[in-house]
Amino acid sequence: MLPITLHIKTPGKNILHTKIKRIKLPGADKPFEVRKNHLAIMTPLDKGEIHFITEGGAETLHIEGGFVAVRKNRVTIILESLPSTN
Prior knowledge:
ATP Synthase, domain 1, five-stranded mixed beta sheet, five-stranded antiparallel beta sheet, 0% helix, globular
């Protein structure tokens, strides 16, 4: 079973809800990775790519920016616009 729940949303739409192993994010200061039992954080995201590992393999989304909240193995990403896939 994958340990982290990932939710990706825009202000008006739920985009993705899945279980993941880990995720790499384009932080406003620098890129960072979230793994199981990561400390709770809330931080802005810069334009860039989100890379995450699901049961089906690696996935990548290109984003224009947003915010991420991490708490108790749950990652919630609020994007400014719909992401594009690579």
